[in-house]
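During the reporting period the student researcher (J.K.) took over the structure-prediction task from the postdoctoral fellow and processed the backlog of single-chain submissions. One of the processed entries is reproduced below for the supervisory committee.
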Amino acid sequence: MAAATIIGTAIEWYDFFLYAAAAGLVFNKVFFASSEPAIATLLSFLTVGLSFLFRPLGAFLAGHFGDRIGRRKVLMITLFGMGIATTLIGVLPTYAAAGIIAPLLLIFLRIIQGISAGGEWGGAVLMAVEHAPENRRGLFGAFPQIGVPIGLLMSSGVLAVMTMITPGEQFLQWGWRVPFLLSFILIFVGHYIRHRVAESPVFAEISARKEVASNPIGAVLKRSFSVVLLAAIVFAGNGASGYMTAGGFIQKYATGNMGLERGPVLWAVTGSAATWLVFTLLAGIVSDKIGRRNTYILGFIAQIVGIAALFPLVNAGDITKLFLALALLTVGLGFTYGQQSAFYTELFPASMRFSGVSVSYAIGAILGGAFSPMIAAWVIEKTGSTSGVTYYLIAMAVAGLVAICLFKDRTGIPLGPDHEAEQAVSPLVFARERQ
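J.K. obtained the following structure tokens:
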């Protein structure tokens, strides 16, 4: 079970982060080459954010069908959608070869990635947490979470290797395509592993009782809208900072503005993905001891410290300090991410849980990560300074901190359909109504 959630999620996020990294290093040159360099970069990062706008569609579809036909089947669909889109990006013609059709095709495939990503996360975390023992949900829920930094590690690592194999212009001509084409192989690896995993025991019990909700999306939005919104803000507080690297901005800033070499920058990002993995897993374990809410509070405080140190270290123009900056940031990122699977799962009643988890995640991704690389690039272009980016990221982290303080701690609440009444009590400190 652990291997299936880790590897399956890692493969999907390898695809997603590979695009984001290539957006800052390649796509601004090969798909938007007709524009001024600064405009080309903004357009390239805009396509990164555009996919987030389609995550709610993926979340709505996955939530609806995940609460009706099961978590496992939905995960298979999202895996193929993401993998096929990524593979096709690897064979797209450039702007020089096909003109405007090239970026249009790129945008279409990125939208498919966004829909797939919107449906992937909710299913993966529920498969992990609903299989977990009550006192180890944080740990089990951290398994799909560490698949995300593993995906970043894999994508940055493969790109770094390709910069060594295809230096200079060769990388822009064809080297960047190889990591995208590798996704075709990863599809079958992910399918083999996920096919061997049993359906979530909670959904299996709901299905056996014939208690499947007819309109779970409608129910969650009608009864739990405030919970969804605040849960989304919690994730947004993490995502805005996380997408500085996962969204490709730091890679572009370090190579373009600071003049560092592409290969060492990618290796620094790869190393920081490893530290992000460690702190994400640790957060899941710690949350089983001190609760999800307390772990988040510690995490957001650490994240604010990491944000404050980020650009002073990056602006030193030294690769060692770049890695130190990114590694320090991952302490807070991990401690506001590892427990998220368990936290979200414990918020919603079993009958509409997939819908609640998926929609909260998708909205949080838009509020936090969707356009943070583009916002950062725009702020620096307009002001010539990184100070505005720092203030923006701190404001997002503070918003996440405030939002988590508005939740009760639900660590250990029973998840099965026998306890819907207990699960339906609002998790918000200021509300008494049922959800």
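The committee noted the following: The CA atoms of residues 150 and 425 lie 36 Å apart.
J.K. will present the remaining backlog at the next meeting.
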